[in-house]
Amino acid sequence: MTISKPEVTVNIVSAQNLVGLSSQKILFVGQMTSAGTATAGALVEDIDNTGIEDTLFGAKSMLAAMIRAAKRINKQVRFDAIPLDDAAGTEATASIAFAGAATAAGTLTFYIGSKKNNAYEIDVALTDTGAEISAALVAAITADTHACATAVVDSLAADLTYVHAGLEGNFVTIKIEGSVAGITPTITGFASGATNPTLTGIFDVAEGIRYQTVVWPSSYVTTTVNSFLEDRWNVSNQVLDGVYITEKIDTLANLKTAAGLLNYKSANLLGNDSVSIAASHIGGSLVELPHVVSAQYAAIRALRLEDGTDISRYVISPYGARDSFGGIAISSLPYANTPFYELSTIDTGLGFSIEEVDELEEVGITVLGDNLANTQVILGNAVTTYKTDAGANPDLSFKYLNYVDTISSIREYYVNNFKARFADSRLTAGDLVQGRSMANAQSIRAFAIGIFTTLSGSDYVLTQAGEDARNYFINNLVVALDLSLGKVTITMKCPIVTQLREIIATLQLSFVTAG
C-alpha cells in the first residue's frame, strides 16, 4: 500500500478546435453487363483503385467506363455505385460501310464512342476492298476489352451494336480520321436503342448517405435524380445536399429547350453539340461517351473540394499558390478554364460558337470547349438550371455551381461547428456560469460571428472580409431562445465571395501625355 498526498487529479479534455467538412463522395448510377458480379440495384460502396470495377460491373459496361475515367483523375475520394441491369429493351445499332477499292495504301482511324479510349487504326493496303477493311475494323473492335460496342462484318460494312439495351447507346459518337484513295466510307449513326432500366426507388439504398456529386447517364429521365437531391437541400439535423452531373449531345435549340424546362440548383447539365457528317463524324463534337464526360467532371469537382489534394493540374491560378490544394476554400474559386486532359480537342468549325455558349449558359447549360489556342479542352462557366424562385421571380442565388458549392460549404461548416460547440449545453436567458457547459443568446451570437470571420479568412475565403461585411452580418444576425423547448432559432444573412467572370474597360485614344 502506498500513500500519496495531496491527491491531485487533472482530467484531459479535447481542444476546442473548429470542425471541417465531411470527405467527398461520388455516386455513379449506370448499367452493368451480365459479366459483372455486383448485385443490380444494390449499393456498391468504396470502390477501390485496383480496377475492380471491371469485375463488378463488366469491363465493357457504361458503369465501369465511368469509374475508370474518374479514377484516372481522382483516386483520393470515395466512389460508390448503383448498378442497374438492362431492361428488356433494344440495343442501339450503327454501321460503317465502305465503297470502292483502295487505289493507294493509307491509314484510317476509327473512334467508336471515345477518341482517347476506343481508337482503332486500320492500315489499308493497295487494292483492299470494303469487305477487307470492314473485317479488319471488326477484328480490332472485338479485341478491345473495353469497347462500348460489339461488331460483325456485313458484306462491305461493319455493323455495330451497343453493349446495353436502352437509350444511352443512341448517343455514341462515331468519327473517322484519315482518307484512302478509292475508298468512300459512310457512317450510319447509332439509333433505335430503346427502354432504359426502371428507376423507381433506386436511391432507397442511399438513404441517409451524403453524396456531394451524383453522375447520371444522359438518357435517363431527370425527375428521379432531381427529386432525390432537391429533397435533400434543407433537411433537419444533417447535411445531405449535392448536385448531379449529366452531359447531353444535341442541337443548340434542343439543349435550350431541355434546360428551359428545368429549374434546379442541384442540376448541372453539360452540353455537347451534335454533328452529322455521314462520311466522317456522327455524334458529339467532343468525341467521348456522355457518361464518361460527366464522370470526369465529377472527379475533378470532388478533387477540388477534398481537403489537401493536389489540384495544381486543374486550377489555373498563378497568383494564388494556396489554391493548388483542394479543400473548402476552393468552393469559391471559379470553375471556368478548368482543363479536361482526358478529352481531345474539337475539330475546327465544330462545337458551339462564343455567342451560342452564352445562350446556353443563360438557360443553365455548362459547355466544354477548346481554349483559344485549340490545344486543350476547358470548362466554361459552371451553371445550374436554377433560374427563378418559388414565385417565378428571376433569382441568381444558385445560378452558378460556385454559389451552390460556397453556400453549401458555409452551411455545413456552421452545422458541424454548432453541433461540436454546443453539444450537451444548458440553455439560459441569463448569465453563463463559469466552468459549466452552458449557452445563452450572447454566446451563440458571438460564436456565429466568429465562424463568419473565420470563413472570411485566408484558409476559407468563402464569406466577404472586412469591417463592412462583418457589420452587415452582425446587423442581420438574430438569435431567439425558447427555453421551454430548449430551442434556438438563428437567422443570418451571409455575404459570400463570388467569381470574376467579365471585365469591361474603355480605352480612349490619346495624342497627348499631359493633362
Model description:
- The chain has 515 residues and is an alpha/beta fold.
- Among the domains are: 25-85 and 197-379, no CATH class; 91-191, Immunoglobulin-like (Sandwich).
- It has 10 helices and 19 strands.
- Strands 1, 2, 4, 5, 8, 10, 11, 12, 13, 14 and 15 form an 11-stranded mixed sheet that branches. The chain has a 4-stranded antiparallel sheet with strand order 6-7-3-9.
- Helix 4 links the parallel strand 10 (213-215) and strand 11.
Topology at a glance:
Layout: E1 25-31, H1 52-57, H2 62-73, E2 78-84, E3 91-99, E4 106-112, E5 119-124, H3 130-143, E6 149-154, E7 157-165, E8 174-177, E9 184-191, E10 213-215, H4 223-230, E11 243-250, H5 252-260, E12 267-277, E13 281-284, H6 290-305, H7 354-363, E14 365-370, E15 377-379, H8 401-421, E16 426-427, E17 438-439, H9 441-455, H10 467-475, E18 478-482, E19 487-491
Parallel strand pairs: 1-2, 1-10, 10-11, 11-12, 12-14, 16-17
Antiparallel strand pairs: 3-7, 3-9, 4-5, 4-8, 6-7, 8-13, 12-13, 14-15, 18-19
Q: How big a fraction of the residues is strand?
A: 15-25%
Q: What order do the SSEs take from the amino end to the carboxyl end, as H and E?
A: EHHEEEEHEEEEEHEHEEHHEEHEEHHEE
Largest sheet: 11 strands, mixed
Shape descriptor: globular
Number of helices: 10
Task: Describe what is shown at a glance.
With 515 residues, this protein is of the alpha/beta class. Helices cover 23% and strands 22% of the residues. Among the domains are: 25-85 and 197-379, no CATH class; 91-191, Sandwich (Immunoglobulin-like).
